[in-house]
Specification:
The chain has 15 helices and no strands. The chain is mainly alpha-helical and 340 residues long. Helix 8 (162-170) runs antiparallel to helix 9 (172-196), helix 8 (162-170) runs parallel beside helix 14 and helix 8 packs antiparallel against helix 15 (314-339).
């Protein structure tokens, strides 16, 4: 089913790539339109392969083995890093196509190897085969699956479009300035994910058994983790100038306002993660889907307004994302209290 969706999305994506002026959209003139189209095609295919092979992560989480899903992600990142490192140091003529293959292909490769291993060893009874397809279950699977798919698309618009918007509005050089504090505070986001991911399936189990007190206690403990994360974010902000100087030198200046907003963004990501995992765990994701659709609709206009009209630059684009994230987090928090 996921391969069918991926194939259909791929066909639509290739038609868009062929008919869009990527040089204008990305505000890039130093790279030919042909090369941009080729890179976009490579990234699209490899991203859709990742999407189609994601069920192994869901199966691992359902068996409360989230450490393996994190290991798959880390392995993909390590392969990508190793590939880029080798290309940078040993390739005489740098190839953007090869960079795209390594960065986007490594996560897909890690998922493929993990799927082969787990389906042939630990989860042999769950190994997918063509002869066991039962179309009568498609509607039931598709109902929830389509909602998650819509949420994932909206997540892409809200959380991963900032680089494209900044590049389009202010040029690729501004993307570098934006990316540095993003990478810096991503350590905090990863920490929240490592702590909270195991509780998705645990909440599912507790909700099915009507163990609401356990859910409340768990959510309370995880909320304290976020408060601790806020303290870490403040500390990271205080020392950020020194860290950036050691990391990238003095050639690139990072605005303090952008750094502060990025710290707030990372903490809000923890809040959103906590309450979305709750709604995912109990299977009530309609509210989440609706609020993400709303956030995806307003994100780009807000980014333009804050960034271009109010002349806040890349900080304005991030402020738009923070605004959307606040709306999402608040709505999911309200839903949690109403359900409990």
């Amino acid at each position: 089913f996921l391969f069918v969706i991926s194939t259909a999305t791929g066909v639509i994506g290739f038609l868009l790539i062929q008919n869009l002026d990527l040089q204008k959209i990305l505000n890039v003139t130093s790279v030919s339109d042909y090369l941009l189209n080729a890179i976009a095609g490579i990234v699209l295919v490899l991203f859709l392969l990742q999407f189609a092979m994601k069920p192994i992560n869901s199966i691992l989480q359902a068996h409360q083995l989230p450490a393996f899903t994190q290991l798959i992600g880390v392995t993909g990142s390590f392969i990508a890093f190793a590939g880029v490192f080798l290309l940078y140091h040993f390739s005489q003529i740098p190839s953007f196509k090869l960079y795209a293959c390594f960065v986007s292909g490594a996560p897909a490769l890690a998922l493929f190897v993990a799927s082969l291993y787990f389906f042939n060893c630990k989860f042999q009874t769950l190994k997918p085969t063509v002869r066991q397809i039962q179309f009568q279950h498609l509607k039931k699977i598709g109902g929830l699956g389509v909602k998650f798919f819509i949420i994932q698309l909206c997540l892409l618009v809200v959380y991963t479009s900032d680089n494209f918007i900044i590049s389009y509005l202010f040029g690729p050089s501004e993307v570098t300035i934006f990316t540095i504090p993003y990478k810096y505070f991503s350590v905090l986001t990863i920490f929240f994910a490592l702590v909270m991911t195991p509780y998705w399936t645990a909440i599912t189990d507790a909700y099915a058994k009507n163990e609401f007190l356990w859910i409340q206690n768990t959510m309370s403990r995880l909320s304290k983790t976020i408060v601790g994360g806020l303290g870490i974010a403040i500390a990271m902000y205080v020392v950020s100038d020194k860290v950036f100087e050691i990391w990238i030198g003095k050639t690139i200046v990072i605005p303090s306002g952008l750094t502060a907003l990025m710290g707030l963004y990372s903490v809000l990501m923890g809040v959103q993660m906590l309450f979305s995992y709750f709604s995912n765990g109990i299977g009530k994701i309609t509210v989440q889907m609706m609020v993400y659709i709303f956030a995806a609709i307003i994100n780009i206009p807000l980014s333009y307004y804050f960034g271009k009209v109010l002349r806040l630059g890349s900080s304005g684009v991030l402020l738009a994302t923070v605004t959307c994230l606040t709306i999402v987090s608040s709505t999911l928090m309200i839903q949690y209290f109403k359900v409990i």
